[in-house]
Amino acid sequence: MLRMSLGAVRDRWHLFAGAVVAVAFGVGLVQSALQVMAATDPPQVPPGLSGPERAKLRDGYAGAATLMGMSVMLAVFLTVFVVSTTFGFAVVQRRRELGLLRLVGAQRGTLRLMLLGEAAVLGLVGTAAGVPIGLVGTWAQSKLLIELGMLPSSFHAPWEQGALWAAAMIGVGTAVVGAFAAAWRASRIGALDALADLPRTLPVMTGWRWFWGLSAAGFTGLMVIAAQAAGDFVAGLMIALVVMISGSVALSQLSPVVVPLAGRLPALVLRGNVVTDLARAGVLHAVRRSAATAAPLIVLVGLLAGLWGVFGSLAKAVGEEQRQLITAELVVGGAVPPDPRIAATSVQTTVPVTIVRTAGKKKQTTYSEAVGIDPAGYQRTHTLRARKGSLDKLTGATIAIGPGMATEGYKLGSSVTAVIGTQRLTLKVVALMPETLDVTEHFFVPRALVCAPASRCAEARTETLVRVAAGTDPAELAQALAAQGEVRTVREWAEAKGAAEQRDDTGIFAVLMGLAGVYAAVAVVNAVVMAAADRRREFALARMAGCTRRQVVGIATVESITVVVVGVLLGALVVGAALAGIAAGTAELYGVVVVAVPWRLLGLISAAALVVVGCTAALSAWTTTRFSPITVLSGRE
């Protein structure tokens, strides 16, 4: 059995090349990610750092480990996806061969073992190729995490033998798991199929594919309805993450059905000459080929654009929330002198702080920032009020727990130790602020406490929120206050705050996007190349019917480009379903729809997919048509 598996891989290596590449990338990524994760525990903290610096460094190590864990899970999922697509194609193309094996007495279990053996061989080959990729990947990922500011420049990930063995087991395991469904389908081929020249009679939509596709579609529909009915922003965010996954799974499983249906829309413009007419027919009728090309794009767009839309919507919602919580019109980057055109001001000075509190028998230390405020001015320019206690009591040796720490279990009336500069103070908690989307404001203290001594205020970051008096033009007042520092409207300030929130997620998202993009490219290129290898007879017949070689290449290229458009549109449909709940939640909460539609990312993915798939389709078709049609049809190529 092993000899048969080895022979099949050797004779049809071009069919399995994409799967080997996917496994190699997966093994390399898993190996490098596990090595980096092992090096982050425990964190390598250099001596001589201050408490806040040590806390920031530990947070960076934790974030790096989390990112590497996400990369491993994504790599395993996408590797299984590519391998399953490859073996699904291989079973269809080898239907006659598998039927002959059944005709000479091979049992169903024998066919299953043979294909699983082929998958194991591919896993071993991919693992061997992935080890050097892992060595390079360890260095590259370490440099990337250092550039993102998660790890210090002195970070080094040493060699871990366990990471290699774990990656090898994952590589072979993902290959076998990915081939399992195809092996089961191969075992259903009957002996009489060897006598029939009908290589495409194997049904594309199996019972299990219908089950998983319809189940995921139904679940997605229920989640979208639930998000609309909830009318809650946070619930909309959580449901959106689920809808992205379930919707992508649903459309990828049902792609043999939905891709030809959706393909009728761009097919309306593919009229007028023989090339476009034949390409349109290929999209609408060659469902297996179209679905295999579109499915990776559906998953890529649904997950990546969906994640970007969710994070972007959250950042925009932070800005909108801040705009509605503030009754001032201007924000000045410094202190503001009295002016009759000013109705109220709130001077806010931010300084580093260390908070030590006792929780049970343990002491907890938090390194953060405290905002020094005047309670009266703050309440005249903000609508946010304490959920327990009152900011009116924020005088003397007191502290208010800000929105960013609202869920950390601080109790009203308890005492904490605060270190501000060189001062060590015991402060009483007099107010607990409600939780908001903006988690950057952790603690409020009296500004007089921050500005003792006054030199600390001069060195700290100070902003003043200005409420304009009735009858005063805000733009005119802004020009008058320009000498005190940068002057922005509250809308501009809130939008900048939201943009800063989004920038914090950009590095992590870029890593995941690059990883998913590489796997999607491998999957799409693999599908196009395998489809072209299976179309030699079709291309030869087209040339015998009068098409030139260039026209045949044009047919394959236009068909592939059309499928790319369909795949991106279906992926965008998943994104729209995910963002629908967020739109409903923000409309209910803020009175306006706050949604970030990732147009730029959709355009980038579309352009990259069109270039990659178009070039691959043209090159594959040109290579496949290198023999004369007579030679191909006579079986002598």
Describe how the helices and strands are arranged:
Blueprint: H1 2-11, H2 13-39, H3 51-93, H4 95-103, H5 108-147, H6 161-186, H7 207-230, H8 233-253, H9 255-267, H10 274-285, H11 287-325, E1 330-332, E2 342-359, E3 362-373, H12 375-381, E4 388-389, E5 398-401, E6 415-420, E7 423-432, E8 443-446, H13 447-450, H14 454-459, E9 461-468, H15 474-480, E10 487-489, H16 490-533, H17 536-544, H18 549-590, H19 599-624, H20 629-633
Parallel strand pairs: 3-8, 5-7
Antiparallel strand pairs: 1-9, 1-10, 2-3, 2-6, 2-9, 4-7, 5-8, 6-7
Helix pairs in contact: 1-5, 2-3, 2-5, 2-6, 2-16, 3-6, 3-16, 5-6, 7-8, 7-18, 8-11, 8-18, 9-10, 9-11, 9-18, 10-18, 11-16, 11-18, 11-19, 16-19, 18-19
Q: Can you give a write-up of this model?
A:
The chain is an alpha+beta fold. The chain has helices at 2-11, 13-39, 51-93, 95-103, 108-147, 161-186, 207-230, 233-253, 255-267, 274-285, 287-325, 375-381, 447-450, 454-459, 474-480, 490-533, 536-544, 549-590, 599-624, 629-633, and strands at 330-332, 342-359, 362-373, 388-389, 398-401, 415-420, 423-432, 443-446, 461-468, 487-489. A six-stranded mixed barrel has the order 2-3-8-5-7-6. The protein is elongated, with a radius of gyration of 31 Å. The mean pLDDT is 84.
